[in-house]
């Protein structure tokens, strides 16, 4: 049957929610299996120690992106019916910067904190309380932020529109760039490190530091 | 003493490309079913609106931002993204149980105390909560879903996330490493 099913009014409200729950279960399970329930693994990329985040994210995006293109060509999915993703470039850039800061300080993002909390991480639960507080703050300040929130309106512009390349060309270019990124990551992963492994790192420190911080939480 | 000893009886994580491929197919399925991608921060926004309406009825409805989350006669929690996030919690729990990783703990580096870690977890969450509303989504709705849909703003967002993370990382190194 040609999709998207919901837009074609094939799905009832109840089914829509049930299917939402089911894709959520898959989403959460695969995030956990990718190691995204661990704050130290997630933040590892920012110390060039663990590259699961860019590897998992880029491969997920490219699989879905190429899949959309294939399903569209095959007539299985009407790409014109997909929800528009408008670009408001300034709030998205500033929001992205802030989100990156919140990520490395807090250790999670909204989806991964739910996975971490479900695997027993108390810090993830506290992070989630912070999320709600941050959203509340934004809502309270919205009147003052409104003009910035709607600034840099470029419409529903895609990378294909922006570059003038066909969508398949964008997929091809991104595959090349991802390949280059993965090659670079491989080089960094294989480079010899003086702090190779946890043990070497820890023995390099004083016992006093280990004594206070090394204990299991 | 070493954190890695936590993992002694757990299954290894999947190879990143396997997990990424599975997530990509899940995202594709979501697009096929609903016409939109996966999300996460929207569910927290709905929860914030629901919480406000419970604590102070009318306050979310009258708020210029959260008002759109309130539909008459229906809780903001009765929405697709909230059901999806409930699924994420269940899926994450199943993953942790079957992977041998279900364990009550405060995740942190070897040289930071619990109190400091929890304070930073809250602070990071606060900044991120604000940021997700400004950017109209998070790593799920913007980076993954918008990224797969080739939205220009989503790719700009993704680059900015990594820039922000790398800029802030040296200041909280002792929290993790």
Give a short summary of the structure.
The complex is a heterodimer of chains A (217) and B (177). Chain A is globular. Residues 198-217 of chain A have low confidence and may be disordered.
Please provide the ordered H/E string of secondary-structure elements of chain B.
HHHHHHH
- Work out the number of β strands of chain B: 0
Largest interface (CB within 8 Å) is between: A-B, 142 and 129 residues
- Give the rounded overall mean pLDDT of chain B: 93
Strand content of chain A: under 5%
Q: Determine the mean pLDDT of chain A.
A: 89
Distance between the termini of chain B: 15 Å
Biggest sheet descriptor of chain B? none
Radius of gyration of chain A: 21 Å
Element order of chain A: H for helix, E for strand: HHHEHHHEHHHH
Structural class of chain B: mainly alpha
Helix content of chain B: 55-70%
Going across the biggest sheet of chain A, name each strand in turn.
1-2
Q: Fraction of residues of chain A in helices?
A: 55-70%
Count of structural domains of chain A = 1
What is the count of distinct domains of chain B?
2
Query: Mind summarizing the main beta sheet of chain A?
Result: 2 strands, antiparallel
> Gap between N and C termini of chain A, in Å?
51 Å
* Poorly predicted segments of chain B: none
User: Helix- and strand-based class of chain A?
Assistant: mainly alpha
